[in-house]
Design brief:
It contains 3 helices and 6 strands, in the order H-H-E-E-E-E-E-E-H. The protein has 155 residues and is α+β, with helices and mostly antiparallel strands. It has a 6-stranded antiparallel beta sheet with strand order 1-2-3-4-5-6.
Length: 155
């Protein structure tokens, strides 16, 4: 018999993102992002440091665990893209805080389309808009990554 979490994770690809830009819908989006992240990183609490996964696209995705606590994990997701001068540009570079006990994942900061997006320090509607932009992006990116068969496993 499948565990409750296994059932939830197996249905994640069919979960649509909330459309209404309300606080309640944003909380629902955090739940969906948590489910998708658990599919991408089944053993997230066992990860530390920097990991990469290639998926079917050939472009390595990097996950850097910034903080790993009993109830929370903070990580950063990015690609390393070559630039003309021979260097590397890390994009989209999004920071995610995962609350394991509440089963939610919140994108808290990121660099999207060469613009910094930071939810902390914003007030009212501006804060809600930034959180929506970051978390909607995370939702779409996670769905893409799972479709392209990216996966981070320990061992």
């Amino acid at each position: 018999m499948m565990s409750r979490m296994t059932k939830i994770l197996s249905m994640a690809s069919s979960i649509p993102a909330p459309r209404v830009r309300s606080f309640a819908a944003l909380m629902e989006l955090y739940e969906v992002n948590f489910i998708l992240l658990r599919r991408l990183m089944p053993s997230i609490t066992s990860l530390n440091g920097v990991h990469s996964s290639q998926g079917r696209s050939g472009l390595p995705l990097y996950i850097e665990i910034l903080e790993q606590e009993k109830f929370t994990t903070v990580l950063r997701m990015f690609y390393r893209l070559p630039v003309e001068d021979g260097g590397v540009h890390e994009a989209p570079d999004i920071h995610v805080r995962i609350y394991h006990d509440a089963s939610v994942a919140e994108a808290v900061a990121g660099r999207l389309r060469r613009r910094d997006c930071l939810a902390m320090g914003q007030a009212g509607e501006r804060c809600l808009d930034v959180r929506w932009r970051l978390n909607r992006f995370l939702y779409k990116w996670l769905r893409y990554l799972l479709h392209r068969q990216y996966c981070f496993r320990t061992g």
